[in-house]
Amino acid sequence: MTPDDIFVKTAAGAEEVKSRGHKLPQRLRALLIMVDGAMTVRQLLRAAQGLGASERFLQELAELGLIVAVFEGVTPRQPEPEQEVASVAAAPALDPAAENERFRLAHRFMNDTAVDVLGLRAFFFTLKLEKCFNRKDLLDLLPEYTRVVTKGSGEEVARMLTARARDKLR
Question: What string of H, E and C letters represents the secondary structure of 92-110?
Answer without folding.
Answer: CCCCHHHHHHHHHHHHHHH
